[in-house]
Amino acid sequence: QVQLVESGGGLVQAGASLRLSCAASGRTFSTNTMGWFRQAPGKEREFVATITKNIGLTAYADSVKGRFTVTRDNAKNTVYLQMNNLKPEDTAVYYCAASRASTLARVRDLYDYWGQGIQVTVSP
Fold it and tell me: Could you read off the pLDDT of 38-81 as tens digits, one per residue?
């Protein structure tokens, strides 16, 4: 099993920045690609960003491209999501996820482990 714990969420004003962290523990050697998803009230959980393990390839949802950056520190088993120029529409619960896949993964079903989620609220 792999455990994922998100941190760094909170309430900010539009235009501000936040950095989310996701610490992995357990059988982390079994996972490769990491991802971030988010779910706003009344909406489906949606893809935000993904990063592969070795080369560090990344991919983003169009809605966050140019504002969010995903990185990872394999030595610390931690993945980060730097969120700049936040907008009210970014308000959601953000989830970290881990996949056994080695390629970029934009689809929820490709992920094997999920964190509990953390709230990010952006006020106008």
Answer: 999 999 999 999 999 988 999 999 999 999 999 999 999 999 99
Decide: 83 and 70 in contact? Cβ < 8 Å.
Answer: no
Alpha helical stretches, state H, the chain: none
Q: Is 103 helix (H, G, I), strand (E, B) or coil?
A: coil
Are 104 and 52 in contact by the 8 Å Cβ rule? The answer is yes
Phi and psi at 109, nearest 5°, equal -65, -15
Distance, in Å, from the CA atom of 62 to the CA atom of 102, rounded to the nearest integer, reads 22
Q: Which two tokens stand for residue 110?
A: 């490709």
Type of residue at 19: R
| Rounded-to-integer distance, Cα 62 and Cα 54, Å | 24
Number of H helices, E strands in the chain: 0, 11
**Token output for 111:** 């992920």
Q: Are 80 and 19 in contact (CB under 8 A)?
A: yes
